[in-house]
Amino acid sequence: MGKIIVLIGAPGAGKGTQARLLMERRGLPQISTGDMFREMKTLDTPLAREVQAIMAAGTLVPDEVTYRIVKERTSRADCNDGYILDGYPRTAVQAEQLERLAKEQGNEIRAIQVDVPRDELVKRLTGRRSCPVCGEIYNIYSKPPKTEGVCDEHPDVNLVHRADDNEESVATRLATYDEQTKPLIDYYEKSGRLKKVNGTGEVEEIYTEIEKRI
Is 173 a catalytic residue? Predict the structure, then answer.
């Protein structure tokens, strides 16, 4: 039986890093809703044309259509042994649809929340700085560059601070996440399948804890 790994985590929790490690070490594809929607823009299939029309109209893609996209993508050969979901499900309705899909595919769901305290999330997000040349990401609180404001590898290049990585924007993003994701966390908690992992340790420590729960 394959495993569907549903990673849940607020912006800045390190969910993306852990998804990449799982993909590399367990050989499971990381299925991102963002990637799937981008792919739909380039395809010429009945489902893709339906999605393109919805996007062109500027309306939200309904849950049922998103489900069909996920179902189509996860029916490919690379998902035979399971997969990691990034950005899906986002709601309790989508979680119920995923139950149906898991049953059809003969897979079991593992819901893992990478849990990080709010003040730590704010530090991680507001403290982020990146090199526009190599993409290396620093943090003024936890991973500062050797010389303030410049990349270690490109000392003639100033690090960039994203415009939306300010306290006000970060607070809004985290509040939106809480509002949208609480029903999903409640859904998996009620069924006794939500596993929480402390997301404040070293990357390898967090990965080991996730591995134990998978």
Answer: yes
